Amino acid sequence: MVSKLPENEIKRFSESVHIFPLRCLVRDHNRNHLRKMFSSEKIIKILNGREPLEIAIGCRIMLTRNLGVNVGLTNGCQGIVLHVEYNDNCKESVKCIVGQFEDYSGNHFVTLPNGSKGFPIFRIADTEFNEAICKYVPDEKFQLVLCYATTAQKSQGLNLKMAAVFLDEHEFAPGLDFVVLSR
Q: From the CB of residue 59, how many other CB atoms can be counted at a distance below 10 Å?
C-alpha cells in the first residue's frame, strides 16, 4: 500500500506516530527510528528497571503514568527531551530527564541555560513482575518511553494529528484493526 503513495505523503507519514498491534513491534520501531535520527554518540542509555531506556536530546517521548493531571501531564502525554541532568556530573547516573510536553499548562518550569523551559521527570518507585522468580519486585523507573510508535491499545484516547497504522494478518485481537481505524 505504501508503494502507491506519492513520495511527499510517504515522508509525512514516516514522521508521524506509528501504531502497531504488538509491543515488540513498537519497541523495534522506536529503537530503529532513534538510531536513524541520532548518531550513537548522541544516544543516552539509561538503566530503567529491567529494560534500558535509550533517548537523545530532541527525541520524542511519552509519559506512561499520570504525573500531574491538573496541568496536563497525563499517561500518554507526548513531548520531547530537552536535557538530561546527571547526579554529580556522573554520566552513569541520571538524576532527571527534562522534557517539554505539548499539553503541559502548569507554571513550574525548569529554565535551561539556552532559555528553553521544561518539566523535570524523576524516577518513581514502581513494581514489576519478575517472571524468573514469579513475584513482583520493587524498582525505580523514569515513567516515560520513546514515542515514534505505540500500541493500538495505548493509542486509544490519544490526540494524534496524524498516524501510520500497521495492518497485517496477525491481529493481536479480532477487530483491533477496526477499532484503531475508527477512533
A: 22
> Which CA distances in Å does 34 have to 26, 27, 47, 91, 96?
12, 11, 17, 20, 20
Q: Which tens digits make up the pLDDT trace of 155-182?
A: 666 666 766 666 666 655 666 665 655 5
DSSP bridge pairs for 145: 62
Predicted confidence at residue 95, as pLDDT, reads 92
Domain-wise residue ranges, the chain? 2-182
**H or E, element range at 128:** strand 117-130
Residues 26, 178, 72, 60: what is their CA dihedral angle, to the nearest 10 degrees?
30
Q: In whole angstroms, give the CA distance from residue 76 to residue 61.
A: 9
Q: Please write the tens of the pLDDT for every residue from 114-155.
A: 888 899 999 998 887 888 888 888 888 999 999 887 776 666
d(CA 183, CA 178): 9
Q: Beta-carbon neighbour count of residue 93 at 10 Å?
A: 11
Identify whether the C-beta of residue 18 lies closer than 8 Å to the C-beta of residue 164.
Answer: yes
C-alpha cell at 81: 527531551
Kindly report, residue by residue over 86-113, the tens digit of the pLDDT. Answer: 988 666 789 999 999 988 888 767 888 8
In whole angstroms, give the CA distance from residue 139 to residue 137: 7
* Nearest-angstrom CA–CA distance, 162 and 21: 17
